[in-house]
Write a structure and sequence with these properties.
six-stranded mixed beta barrel; 14 helices; membrane; 2 domains; MacB_PCD; two-stranded antiparallel ribbon; alpha+beta; ATP-binding; nucleotide-binding
């Protein structure tokens, strides 16, 4: 029966090619515009570490003398090291980034500015960073302030011209570091673990032990958001300065552990208040947001992307209404044909299904056109100066969503016209014939 409805629908659409083209164009424009913006929104607001982010948390404490509406986004050195050394989580990592002049240690190598992340050994297993060569440093290397480094595959290619960087030496500033591992290029979207730099920029290229970076403070790795709430500031000796500049993440693999860590964080803050480090009146403030809560708290998705998504959905609604009107006109112009079919025994349900099949064909054709327009729109976004521009690609879920939306929109557009068509009284039309 479906094949019969399909044949009738195709014949009907061919009879009035101009009207059919207008309906397909309306659907295509709406779907193309909405899928362009929804794809960008999907890429920017998605889970940066699927399957792992639910176990990652960002501890927050407030050591500042005056309570701001929101808790500080970074941590000072004393609090970060205290929490790291307490080892109350399954894994924990301090991190801070900066651009450092880097080159291969061989004579004649040209220096380049590479984004360097100073962190601790748990960073790599905690975030699931995949190694292509070698491995990460150990907790003992952290404490020994070892001059070792992990580099990305792209950094290895740039520094060593594709010859492989494992076991080689690189020069950061005026100091040599031995490369003990090479990772696959790692770029979570967004950079949830270090939001004080651009959220959708390039990934990190060089990783070194955090305590080593403080031992060699002249490297200048102090982050992108240095917020000092005291009267003095010394970028080279931030260990004892009242400054917020570090990121600290923990891994807790169960709700019970997360609850226990929240209690530990509260107790730690009260202890620091009793020691006189926290001077705010009342109970000290703490928080333990998960990855997705942290992204939502910081409003990571650009406001213009959210606005454009709503505008595009509004445009899709307008296109849907136009298509509904065109289908209604088309079906009501076939009252004679429908009346004859009813007189020959066709039920209202059969007429309704026939009209819906025709609407779905229009929707699917509009979906194909919309897909092409979305690909063109994403190509245009990739040529804009936005920091997320190179991420604008249509992935498999959004490809499938394009046709799923096309099917839903076409069914919605066809419901009213099909309902009106199946309720045409055949007797009046047959009298005219």
């Amino acid at each position: 029966m479906f094949a019969y409805y399909l044949d009738l629908a195709l014949r009907s659409l061919k009879q009035n090619r101009v009207l059919t083209a207008l309906m397909v164009l309306a659907m295509g424009l709406g779907i193309g515009a909405s899928m362009t913006t929804l794809t960008v929104f999907h890429l920017l607001s998605g889970d940066p570490l699927p399957g792992r982010s639910g176990q990652l948390f960002y501890p927050q404490v407030d050591p500042t003398p005056t309570a701001a509406p929101a808790l500080p986004g970074n941590m000072n050195y004393i609090d970060a090291v205290n929490l790291w050394q307490a080892r109350r989580a399954d894994r924990q990592a301090i991190m801070v980034g900066g651009n450092v002049k880097t080159k291969a240690a061989q004579a004649g190598s040209r220096p380049m500015s590479l984004h360097t992340l100073a962190t601790t050994a748990d960073f790599f297993p905690m975030f699931g960073v995949r190694f292509t060569q070698g491995n990460a440093w150990t907790a003992a290397d952290d404490l020994a302030k070892a001059r070792v480094a992990v580099i990305s595959r792209s950094a290895s290619d740039r520094l060593f011209h594709g010859e492989g960087g494992l076991g080689q030496s690189i020069r950061l500033g005026q100091w040599n570091f031995r490369v003990i591992g090479v990772i696959d290029d790692w770029r979570p979207t967004p950079h949830f673990y270090e939001l004080d730099r651009e959220s959708y920029g390039d990934g990190d290229e060089v990783f070194i032990p955090f305590l080593t970076s403080r031992d060699l403070a002249e490297l200048g790795i102090t982050g992108y958001s240095l917020n000092c709430y005291g009267n003095t500031m010394d970028d080279l000796h931030l260990e004892n300065q009242p400054c917020l500049w570090l990121n600290f993440w923990v891994e807790l693999d169960s709700p019970a552990k997360a609850q226990a860590y929240r209690q530990f964080l509260d107790n730690y803050a009260r202890e620091q208040q009793a020691l006189g480090r926290y001077v705010q009146a009342g109970s000290p403030r703490t928080a333990l947001p998960s990855v997705m809560q942290w992204l939502d708290q910081n409003g990571v998705v650009p406001s213009d992307v959210s606005l454009k998504s709503w505008i595009a959905l509004g445009f899709l609604l307008v296109c849907l209404m136009n298509t509904t009107g065109l289908l209604l006109v088309k079906f009501l112009r076939r009252t004679t044909e429908i009346s004859v079919r009813r007189a020959l025994g066709a039920s209202r349900q059969q007429i309704f299904l026939q009209c819906l099949v025709e609407a779905v064909i229009v929707g699917m054709a509009g979906g194909v056109l919309g897909l092409l327009l979305a690909l063109a729109g994403l190509w245009g976004i990739r040529h804009t100066p936005a920091d997320y521009a190179d991420l604008a690609h249509l992935d498999l879920p959004m490809f499938a969503a394009t046709f799923a939306i096309s099917l839903v929109v076409s069914l919605v557009a066809g419901l009213l016209p099909a309902w009106r068509a199946c309720h045409i009284a055949p007797a009046l039309q047959l009298k005219v014939i």
